[in-house]
Amino acid sequence: MVRSFPNIVITGTPGTGKSTHSSLLASTYSPSGSSSHPLRQIDVGAVVKAEGFYTEFLEEWQSYEVNEDQLLDHLEPLTGTKAPEPTESEDYDEMETNQAKQQSEEDEERGGLVLDWHTCEVWPERWVDLVVVLRCDHTVLWDRLEKR
């Protein structure tokens, strides 16, 4: 099944604004002619903790050693499987694209994920339509992290 909505990865160093930007994007994006918000923000770190997708807690770094296989298996059904082909491509399938457009926003397999995490190399390329890497000035970043 071709996904109906794009999957977006927002990544960057802790404190750059990933969660802020992800939630803003998910709460305000709506396709033309629609008042709904089809994007779903997923705070990957929270999913890892809540679902137990880690092998150990690293005391020195105050972080989890993530079991990437478990994480990917959990999220894959939500990704919409594959991106639609560009209309000018020889692989473009109009019927497949029209089926994707008919998917309900409640359909778990429709795509439309905003994946908020500190890294992007874990995601299979076929899942991702756009990667946004956030950066900020080191002095601003330091101030933000000190407040945490």
Automatic annotation (TrEMBL):
<dbReference type="GO" id="GO:0016887">
    <property type="term" value="F:ATP hydrolysis activity"/>
</dbReference>
<feature type="region of interest" description="Disordered">
    <location>
        <begin position="77"/>
        <end position="110"/>
    </location>
</feature>
<keyword id="KW-0418">Kinase</keyword>
<dbReference type="GO" id="GO:0005737">
    <property type="term" value="C:cytoplasm"/>
</dbReference>
<dbReference type="GO" id="GO:0004017">
    <property type="term" value="F:AMP kinase activity"/>
</dbReference>
<dbReference type="GO" id="GO:0005524">
    <property type="term" value="F:ATP binding"/>
</dbReference>
<dbReference type="GO" id="GO:0005634">
    <property type="term" value="C:nucleus"/>
</dbReference>
<dbReference type="InterPro" id="IPR027417">
    <property type="entry name" value="P-loop_NTPase"/>
</dbReference>
<keyword id="KW-0547">Nucleotide-binding</keyword>
<dbReference type="GO" id="GO:0006364">
    <property type="term" value="P:rRNA processing"/>
</dbReference>
<feature type="compositionally biased region" description="Acidic residues">
    <location>
        <begin position="87"/>
        <end position="96"/>
    </location>
</feature>
<feature type="region of interest" description="Disordered">
    <location>
        <begin position="1"/>
        <end position="40"/>
    </location>
</feature>
<keyword id="KW-0808">Transferase</keyword>
<keyword id="KW-0067">ATP-binding</keyword>
<feature type="compositionally biased region" description="Low complexity">
    <location>
        <begin position="22"/>
        <end position="36"/>
    </location>
</feature>
<dbReference type="Pfam" id="PF13238">
    <property type="entry name" value="AAA_18"/>
</dbReference>
<keyword id="KW-0690">Ribosome biogenesis</keyword>
<keyword id="KW-0698">rRNA processing</keyword>
<protein>
    <submittedName>
        <fullName>Predicted nucleotide kinase/nuclear protein</fullName>
    </submittedName>
</protein>
<dbReference type="InterPro" id="IPR020618">
    <property type="entry name" value="Adenyl_kinase_AK6"/>
</dbReference>
